[in-house]
Specification:
two-stranded parallel sheet, 16 helices, Radical SAM core domain-containing protein, metal-binding, alpha/beta, 37% helix, 425 residues, oxidoreductase activity, 12 strands, TIM Barrel, 10-stranded mixed sheet
């Protein structure tokens, strides 16, 4: 039995009001949703299945542009009532004050909004519509005023990677919970774009790491960049400074998947290979029995990734491997790392740490926390208990460590999206 998913990305529609050069979905401008996209009744049925297969998971509702989906509020409300944590990934240009309030009232925890430059000109050229930058900024302000957690998102290119400090300033000015930096995977219309070189990729990751250390109050995270665990020196099973054991490494097919507008299930938005169809199979059947997912969970990567001393803690980007040669388990062609002489391929070594028991009341409280937060909170509470020489966590210990940790994390649950896989729109 495979572990339950903790994050799901759902491309609700290919309909979009922009024409972004790098769109992985190859979204299009039209008046109505395409006839092959999941209808409202089908989508509500999928939400019921998600609640069963992935209880408490974060559900990222994106597109295209999800605000063009006329039943978005109904889907958000259904997801929230089913115990999921709905989040909307949007370009922000259609997010008025009224719509932001409607989403908040329906149960949206936060919004991921894309802003690709401090320079309106570059953003507008990339997004294919004049004035997009200003309208996106207005959307961010509307979300903030409605009380939605904001995650600012930027896709990195050679033209804007030098703007990282300026973009971080903007994220802080808008009160963003997190700043997500996406490294391009050349799929969809993205195949027309020039990706960063492997050397530039590495240099940019080190710049992101430096910024995070300089500005600890803002979560600054690299997305589609499993090498960040190597930059941080984190081995398999290790966590530190907000990086959970699984954070930043590729979760595709292991704790994460994507649903297309037509109901196909794929390992992630950048991997078009299909694991199954929700119009023909149940979600649980796809999640548990898909040969594609089995490969991602059970096989070691090939090539240099399979021989690497970070092959478990990093493992490379499976989407880049697939895009480069069609083999989802091949080596990641963007990694420039060479293991030191004599380094052995990484093997999973269970940490030798004293076990921490949980009282029934404490465990019950833990199970009421959304799934995508639960593992992080459990790990950090156990870490604090060990530091105090304790062998058991009870409800009083949880309450004592709530200020500044649990309270802030749960109140701004959307901030944790920074460590997951919200896809840039």
């Amino acid at each position: 039995m495979s572990a339950a998913p903790i994050v799901i990305s759902w491309n609700l529609t290919r309909l979009c009001n922009l024409a972004c050069d790098h769109c992985y979905l190859d979204a299009v401008s039209r008046k109505r949703e395409a006839p092959d996209e999941l209808r409202t009744e089908e989508a509500l049925g999928v939400i019921d299945q998600l609640a069963e297969t992935a209880p408490g998971a974060m559900l990222i509702l994106t597109g295209g542009e999800p605000l063009l989906r006329r039943d978005l509020v109904d889907l958000v409300r259904a997801a929230s009532r089913n115990g999921l944590m709905p989040v909307v990934g949007t370009n922000g240009t259609l997010l008025s004050a009224e719509r932001a309030r409607m989403l908040k009232d329906a149960g949206v925890a936060g919004v991921g909004i894309s802003l690709d430059s401090a320079n309106p000109g570059f953003h507008d050229r990339l997004r294919g519509v004049a004035g997009a930058w200003q309208r996106t900024v207005e959307g961010i302000e509307a979300a903030r005023d409605a009380g939605l957690a904001i995650l600012m998102q930027t896709t990195l290119f050679e033209e804007n990677r030098h703007e990282l400090p300026a973009m971080t300033d903007i994220a802080e000015r808008f009160g963003a919970m997190a700043f997500n930096l996406f490294f391009l995977v050349c799929t969809g219309r993205g195949v027309t774009q020039t990706d960063l070189s492997a050397e530039t990729y590495e240099e940019t990751l080190r710049e992101i790491d430096r910024l995070q250390r300089e500005r600890p109050s803002l979560k600054i995270r690299a997305r589609c960049a499993p090498y960040m665990r190597r930059i941080e020196g984190l081995r398999a099973g290790e966590s530190r400074d907000g990086y959970a054991e699984w954070s930043s490494a590729c979760l595709a097919g292991r704790r994460y998947f994507r649903i297309t507008p037509q109901g196909y299930v794929t390992p992630c938005p950048y991997i078009p290979a299909v694991a199954g169809s929700l119009r023909m199979q149940t979600l649980n059947e796809i999640w548990q029995r898909s040969p594609l997912f089995a490969r991602l969970r059970d096989e070691l990567p090939g090539g240099k990734c399979g021989a690497c001393d970070y092959r478990l803690s990093c493992g490379g980007c499976r989407a880049r491997a697939h895009a480069a040669g069609g083999d989802i388990m091949a080596e990641d062609p963007k990694c420039s790392y060479t293991p030191p002489a004599g380094a052995e391929p990484e093997t999973r070594i269970e940490a030798v740490t004293p076990p921490i028991a949980w009282t029934p009341e404490a465990r019950d409280r833990l199970t009421r926390i959304p799934a995508f937060l639960r593992e992080r909170i459990r790990a950090r509470l156990e870490e604090r208990a060990r530091a105090q020489g304790l062998s058991e966590i009870n409800a009083e210990f949880m309450a004592a460590h709530r200020p500044g940790f649990l309270t802030g994390t749960l109140h701004h649950a959307g901030a944790v999206i920074a460590d997951e896989q919200i896809q840039d729109k």
